[in-house]
Amino acid sequence: MKYDIEYFERMLRLNSSTAEEISKIRWDWIEQVDPKIVLDYGSGVGWFRAWRPKGVEVFSYDIGEFPQTGIPLRIYDVACFWDVFEHILDMREVEPMLALSKNLALTLPMKPEDKEFDRWKHFKPGEHLHYYTPETLTALFKRYGFMLKETGTPECPPREDVVSFLYGKERWKS
Asked: Which among 72, 103, 104 is positioned nearest to 88, based on CA atoms?
């Protein structure tokens, strides 16, 4: 899958109608960690940053061509990976962000047991490179010092088969 301007323009057309609603759901989801400095990794067109609460600074990074701030700081209260991890080929790509973050918030598609992969909406070979279960995802982040704080499906509806996770560092050195 090529994440170029055509991809992002297609996503903009397909998802703009629910972007504000989903961004607000995501801000409610991470509110418990009281974020003041946030990294939105894989920020796409920047919806999450656009609807941020007052008093919260959001830095954005994406491989796309949309305006973004980059990753200028050495510490983030929370790094957000909304619909990102299923696209990451090699975890070494994001390890630096994991080291800079006190908390992680993410969403990704998870196949319900009653659906077959080849008939599932989120089965996208070549675009979705990994399919996780809650157990495999939690084991992965435990390797980086994170423990699961909360999981749920606050984005469903309007979305389908998307699970949200919030992880916190077991030990944080200020």
From this structure: 104
Q: Which residues contact 165 (CB under 8 A, 6 or more apart)?
A: 104, 105, 106, 107, 108, 134, 137, 138, 148, 150, 151
Whether 58 and 40 have beta carbons less than 8 Å apart is answered as: yes
Tell me the residue length of the chain: 174
What superfamily would CATH give domain 5-169?
Vaccinia Virus protein VP39 (3.40.50.150)
- pTM to 2 decimal places: 0.86
- Cβ(79)–Cβ(146) below 8 Å: no
Find out whether 108 and 129 touch, Cβ atoms under 8 Å.
no
Residue labelled with tokens 């055509």: 6
Tell me: the pLDDT tens digits for 2-18?
555 565 566 655 556 67
C-beta of residue 85 within 8 angstroms of C-beta of residue 127: no
